[in-house]
Automatic annotation (TrEMBL):
A Pfam entry, by short name: Cas_Cas5d
One GO-annotated biological process of the protein: defense response to virus
Protein known as: CRISPR-associated protein, Cas5h family
Record has Acyltransferase as a keyword: no
Protein's organism: Syntrophomonas wolfei subsp. wolfei (strain DSM 2245B / Goettingen)
Keywords: Antiviral defense
Keyword presence, Calcium: no
Length: 246
């Protein structure tokens, strides 16, 4: 299987969690699939979340980037020890005036940011339209984009490097070297000693039609092995490591 591989990084990132919106905004540890599709949509010029009425458009089930790119399969490898990026809470003022109804028009924001995130990302065409896949590969390989891709906030431009096409083969190893979605019993994971690690995070996997709320799944990153009958689908290897696509 042909796969488009690249390194995605930046000094800072913030993929805001929607379940806490008071006092402090928190970020997910890794770029999730919906955010990654949005970033790729920016590369080839697809529109994002916006009020359809303002643009004289009928109501749509999904933003354009998601409607077009959701058939794509992705695999993400966090390039950091044990899959955990360092984070810090930043404190700043938003004084544009229309940001809130705070007294004086000044909104005081506390927000958690990822520091120096770095991922290796694999893309697989799967059921994506061939013309869109070719366009995406062409833009990525030539280092072009229509809109500036960013890491969760437009203050944090994304750095995309080492873009290339690679050949992957179907694999069924019990250890997975990328993030993967797993809803089974964590106690069934085995091995990894003496430096066993297990990173678990519930994060968005898809969007609900029309209202575009997130749907969530449990992302795992570990050096443990899985029971053979609980391996996720779409496992591929480059001959050295095995990656889960979702």
């Amino acid at each position: 299987m042909k796969s488009l591989r690249f390194t995605l990084s930046g000094p800072l990132a913030c993929f805001r969690q929607p379940d806490v919106n008071a006092k402090v905004y928190f970020t997910y540890n890794n770029i999730h699939k919906v955010a990654l599709l949005g970033l790729l949509g920016a590369v080839i010029g697809l529109s994002g979340y916006r009020n359809a009425d303002l643009y004289g458009q009928g109501e749509k089930l999904y933003p354009e980037f998601y409607e077009v790119l959701s058939p794509l399969l992705v695999s993400v490898v966090p390039n950091v020890k044990n899959g955990y990026f360092s984070k810090k809470i930043q404190y700043f003022n938003n004084s544009v005036g229309y940001a809130s109804k705070e007294e004086g028009g000044n909104l005081q924001v506390r927000e958690q940011w990822l520091e120096n995130p770095n991922w290796t990302v694999f893309l697989a065409q799967h059921k994506l339209d061939a013309s869109i896949w070719d366009k995406l590969c062409d833009y990525m390989l030539r280092g072009q984009c229509v809109y500036i891709p960013y890491l969760g906030r437009n203050d944090f431009p994304a750095q995309i490097s080492d873009v290339c096409l690679v050949e992957l083969s179907v694999s069924k190893s019990l250890r997975i070297d990328s993030l993967f979605l797993y809803s089974g019993d964590l106690n069934t994971l085995d091995g990894g000693d003496p430096s066993q690690y297990l990173f678990v995070e519930t994060a968005p996997t898809s969007l609900v039609p029309k209202h575009n709320f997130y749907e969530f799944g449990r992302y795992i990153f570990t050096n443990c092995t899985l029971p053979e009958d609980e391996l996720p689908p779409y496992l591929y290897s480059d001959g050295v490591r095995q990656y889960s696509f979702y």
